[in-house]
Amino acid sequence: xxxxxxxxxxxxxxxxxxxxxxxxxxxxxxxxxxxxxxxxxxxxxxxxxxxxxxxxxxxxxxxxxxxxxxxxxxxxxxxxxxxxxxxxxxxxxxxxxxxxxxxxxxxxxxxxxxxxxxxxxxxxxxxxxxxxxxxxxxxxxxxxx
Length: 145
Hints:
The structure is a single chain. The protein is mainly α. It is built from 5 helices and no strands. It has helices at 2-35, 41-69, 74-99, 109-118, 121-138.
């Protein structure tokens, strides 16, 4: 009876993290377009940080899900597909940032995309569950007795 409840949590945490990555990645670009009408390197880096962090957390979920449920669980495939999409967005916005002139600001834009994704409760829960599942997958099974 425990397995279905665990599966439900994967299905809640994976889309929540992906949606959070999309929102945090899209927000700096949308805000810049609404306020100033032009994009800066920092806007693109903030977007790339949001998309990339979401992709990395979802990518760590794949072996974690396999550690709990085995290799053919559909949540692992869903997490991998969403990580691929967010990774593509991160790559596109990183390349766009490389084409923009440097604003002279050394710290900030990339972290402004990373931290809002990483420190959300559902993202941290997914990351912790993924690390536990990865440990279960990699650790040798101990026999009792």
